[in-house]
Amino acid sequence: MLKVGLVGFGFMGRMNFDHYVKLNEDGYPIALTAVCDPRIEELKGQKASGNMTTAREVYDLSAYHLYSDLEDMLANEQLDAVSLAVPTYLHAEMACSLLERGYHVFCEKPMARHSAEAVKMAETAARTGKKLMVGHCLRFWPAYEYLKDKIAGGEFGQVTAGYFYRGSGAPKGWLVNDELSGGCMLDMHVHDTDMIQYLFGKPDKVSSLGRNVVPGSGYDIVSSHYHYKDGKVINAQADWTLEGDFGFYMGYRVNFERGNVVFDGSTVKVNPNSQPGFTAYLSPHTGYYRELVYFLDAILQNKPVSVCAPESTALSIEIIEAEMESARNEGAWVTLF
Asked: Residue 13 class from Cβ within 10 Å (0-12 exposed, 13-18 middle, 19+ buried)?
């Protein structure tokens, strides 16, 4: 039975909590035993807001050991792994410290505020032999897994173009402080940048346009092009200024030589050029659930974290930094070495 501690009880902390509870209910050998947050006494009676709905509005944490200090939790609990759902600027220092002390670490995306920190995290995991996985949930999201399978299988030939998009209203608190979060580009847009890198490999160069709307939050609207030597046209856009009743949306359209695949946020429609289109069957489990299953299996079976390898997720931060540099220079192409 793996014992896990959760650090951070905001929106993503609760999303982690929900899925650890669900895994336990499904008979998985996992026990979430402790929850840590500096504001735990305040937060445990409050609802957290985010892009998606958590399983509960108010959480009964009476069955868990609660801590306001991480060191207290580590001193008093016998843990195998720790889930980090803390602000981005804390990821690198906390993850490296935990890895050094012998804990496996699941860290929410983005991997770190800066690519040099992300590289250090990957190097620390390799040196200590402990599992480190970053929660890039799209790599496990059924609609995106389906797309990866179609690209790898070659059923519709080569990809000729792709468009990826996500949008919502602006978040609150530290997330709209560019120095702490990296703004929309690093917090939201990184999902699609990471997926593009995962699907197609490292681009040769990038070109981005960005706009700031919320004071101090960095780029809130972004449109990026990714150049590949085979000439496919790849673009990703993100926008967290969509207020009112917009809610949240993510989707893609990918063109192949002999068809196209479109995800509208809920269903995947496959449109072959020479036969009727159809709706793809997708797993009912979200990427949040499936990424934790993968992480825990890697620990239990002592397998490498290959689908979401730290070196790969660190590369996604490097690409985002190149996109930021391009945006600062009005869309000039920035080469990735």
From this structure: buried
